[in-house]
Amino acid sequence: MSARSEAYLAGIPTKPYDLLREGLVVLAAIAAIVLVLAVAFGSPDYPPVTGQQVARSEPVAFLETSAGILAGASGIQTYGPPYTADRGAAQRVLGLAPANLPGVTIPLDPARDFVLRPLHRLALLSRGVAGALRAFEAASGEQRASWLRAYQAALAHAAAAGDTVRLPAGDFGPVPALMDGMLRLGRAGLLEGALEAGGAPYTLDFTRPLLFFQDDVDHGVARRLDMTGEQWGISNETGAFPGAWWLWPYTFLYQIPPMSTSPNGDLQVAVIMTLIFAVLVFLPFIPGLRSVPRRLGLHRIIWRDWYAHHS
Predict the structure, then answer these.
(1) Within the chain, which residues score under 50 in pLDDT?
(2) Looking at the chain, which runs of residues are DSSP E strands?
(3) How far apart are the first and last CA of the chain?
């Protein structure tokens, strides 16, 4: 210690403690345990859900997602900030909606950004898609809605046969050609690239690809893996592997009212956890609470060898 530290601690009992050595020992022990477990059990990570995977294995679900987005049935369209200007959908606590403060920072029009814009890219290579796009965009809003309603109703009775999806007869206008174009994009593994913003050769913004399947497809996969909110959410893990058990205080709050039934549950849980951490951080400055350790007397157990001779 420095001379100033020694003068400050003069007359105060001290105990030698090698923090650096203890930290290195703990780090080495944890690294060894992690390495052994990784070799023995491998990674519990579930492979990512991609457009190509869905388009090839679940073409009807792919088309239902694409048609629903084009019809305006995507959950993003009414999500509010940061995606849309619908402020009424934002979660609130005590009348305050923190998501509304920054406003729309990632503006999205799902029908345009998730379906029409990728199809416009494909239209450069496909005359059929280009013609269908011109017919669809030239039609009135009422006509588009009629075609999409008929197409979505037919999808409920669709059957996948090889590389095609068979639909019952109906007046779908150019919608089947558009959806076939989306399916071709997905099967070719080009959907994510067509969805990414900006057209830059390298991007770290995967917002659109992640949101494309966020309604039914991703929820269906999570349900099969028992990873939905009803199954303790983020504290669960794929397969039989243990989850992030240290997050149980956070996920526990989702299982009790009012958070378990409130549309503002996410924000309520976040506020509660923030308050808990704030109490822990500022504990030395809170009268009454800061005296709890002294009143419990745990320090006497930790320093019992000193108190045995000086009490």
Answers:
(1) none
(2) 159-161, 164-166
(3) 27
